[in-house]
Amino acid sequence: MSLSIQGKTAIVTGAGRGIGLAIARHFVERDANVMFAGADEGALDAALAEWGDDRSQVLKFAGDISEKLAMANMISATLDAFERIDILVNAHRFVKDSDPLDTDPGVLEEMLRQNMVAGLRLSQMVAKRMIRQAQGQTDLVQAGAIVNVSTLAACRPVPAMLGYSIACAAQEQATRGLALALAPHNIRVNGVSFSSVMSHELQCALKEDAGLRDKIIAGTPLGRIAAADELTDTVHYLVSEGARFVTGQIITVDGGRSLADPVAAQVL
Fold first, then answer.
1. Is this model's pTM higher than 0.85 or not?
2. By CB count within 10 A, which of 96, 150, 178, 244 is most buried?
3. Which CDD domains did the record assign (predicted)?
4. pLDDT digit of tens for each residue in the chain (268 aa)?
5. What DSSP letter does each residue of 127-196 carry, written as one string?
């Protein structure tokens, strides 16, 4: 089983910090060419500074990647630098509180646009390129791999973040639907759902709530919060040839948190 991604070209969105940065860095360390994409140019510059002047494997694109023109420009920049695209990881996430009883339609629409529609649209655009690249190849050669990153909010809704929960659930269904649509082209589409992992958003939340860390650890069977780079091996597997018969799956990386019943833990 080959897990090598050496020489592959990947686009990773949300790569300026947190989960996206951990995934992009992991790919570079495994000798892939990586487009770091995100809205915060300062964060991207800081991320790429790690490689100093030797940036033959890394590139950045700063812009609103929920906009179609920005997506097209990012794809063009990637092709200009690396000539092909083999991997797409939609790790960009937009999290905002919303009133579950009076959700502002604008907030809900923004949650869906940022967390589901943008990733779906980018996946469609990249998939068309992957299909063209694969022309003339044998059926057994992987044409491309796409991974969508979501959270446990998709199946464990958080009332204060109802819009985000809905968007995560929609994203996971889009993953399954796109997997079926692209299977005839030998492009695989999978998802990774995480919780109890040190994302950028969780870091910010822990600074605001001193007791949150203990609550998360208590609700996680493996008894800790994982580092962001503990998620990357799962993403790596899904984009590698080792997962060449895996598509349309949502793999949960949460230390068992989705299995835990906080009420049962107190009663049984």
1. yes
2. 150
3. SDR_c
4. 689 999 999 999 999 999 999 999 999 999 999 999 999 999 999 999 998 877 789 999 999 988 999 999 999 999 999 999 999 999 998 887 777 777 677 888 888 999 999 999 999 999 999 999 988 776 667 899 999 999 998 988 778 888 888 999 999 999 999 999 999 999 999 999 999 999 988 898 899 988 999 999 999 999 999 999 999 999 999 999 999 999 999 999 999 999 986 655 544 4
5. HHHHHHHTTTS-TTS--EEEEEEEEGGGTS--TTBHHHHHHHHHHHHHHHHHHHHHGGGTEEEEEEEE-S
